[in-house]
């Protein structure tokens, strides 16, 4: 007999070691149940990266149903939890998370939050946004990613911004030319070789 979601939630709550918690979260995430959303979100606050990765994967698998709870319970004090939640929202790509991702990308003090937001901005499901709002929203995303890709002090954030730009360019043909031009500039001016190589890869993909 398969365990119920309630049983899986209790297993997470009662886990008394890092490995036991990881296994319990993986099992709960695999259930892909909306009833698991609060518990998976709580796990993002734990100091257990493996369990947090499993929780993020579970929330992404649940999809759009997880977005309202994530938005309502974003931890403003725990930047680690905020980074994981941002990663989950970015992975889901729901337009309801767009404003939060934009703000986090350009203003959060935590580079891990900015990195997650930058990646997520390239993953937005634009077909879910009112057609009249798409162009302005994409313009805001491009501006945020342009700023991050050229001005963020952390190379991992600049790298993530290029990933986001590639995603935007794939989804929004109207911005592809501007994105290619920007990536060409990055290839010439970026000091970190890993970031330059990622710009090359994005340029090749957006041919």
TrEMBL record:
Gene symbol of the encoding locus: cpcF
DNA-binding listed as a keyword: no
Cellular component terms per the entry's GO annotation: phycobilisome
UniProt keywords, alphabetically: Antenna complex, Lyase, Phycobilisome
Domain of life of the native organism: Bacteria
Protein name: Phycocyanobilin lyase subunit beta
Pfam families, per database record: HEAT_2
GO molecular function terms listed in the Swiss-Prot or TrEMBL record: lyase activity
């Amino acid at each position: 007999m398969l365990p119920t979601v309630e049983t899986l939630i209790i297993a997470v709550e009662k886990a008394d070691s890092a490995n036991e918690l990881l296994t319990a979260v993986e099992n709960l995430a695999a259930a892909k149940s909306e009833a698991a959303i609060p518990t998976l979100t709580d796990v993002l606050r734990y100091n257990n990266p493996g369990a947090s990765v499993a929780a993020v994967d579970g929330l992404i698998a649940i999809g759009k149903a997880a977005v309202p709870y994530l938005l309502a319970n974003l931890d403003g004090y725990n930047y680690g939890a905020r980074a994981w939640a941002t990663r989950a929202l970015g992975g889901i790509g729901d337009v309801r998370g767009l404003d939060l991702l934009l703000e986090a990308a350009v203003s959060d003090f935590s580079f891990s939050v900015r990195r997650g937001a930058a990646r997520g901005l390239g993953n937005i499901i634009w077909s879910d946004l009112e057609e009249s709002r798409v162009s302005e929203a994409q313009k805001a995303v491009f501006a945020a990613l342009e700023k991050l890709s050229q001005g963020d002090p952390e190379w991992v954030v600049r790298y993530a911004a290029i990933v986001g730009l590639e995603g935007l360019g794939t989804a929004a043909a109207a911005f592809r030319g501007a994105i290619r031009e920007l990536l060409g500039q990055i290839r010439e001016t970026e000091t970190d070789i890993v970031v330059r190589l990622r710009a090359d890869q994005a340029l090749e993909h957006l041919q």
